[in-house]
Amino acid sequence: MVYLAHEISHKWWGSVHDESEWLNEAFATYSSLLYLQAGGDSTGYRIELAKRVQSAANAPAIIGFDREKAPYPLFRRVIYDKGTVILAALHARVGTEKFYAILAQTAAERVSTTAGFLAVVAQLTTPDTRQWLITELSR
Question: By the 8 A CB rule, do 121 and 130 touch?
Fold first, then answer.
């Protein structure tokens, strides 16, 4: 079910991508986890997120990641898993209402770069949250 929800979410987030692909894949992956949660499977959500947290541990930074020089398993850890963990942390930091507003504006503006996403976060949250996100993406 998670895989299908991930692929379907690519249709929704189709314009969300940049040179690193983290927005494209992390948005699709986190959307699939939110689908589990919205369907009442909070345990499944926690299990799937925990898998990604474990995979993302000690992964390189998203900002500056060179996918061309990385083996595919590392690419997945950084782009899919670490990106998803960061989105989940952003969600926890700002709350569901604000997080969904960020997602809605990201989709409405067809944001396709990390800089564009950071601009949306800055507009809808606080300078501290934007800086926090930059730090998370850079470590």
Answer: yes
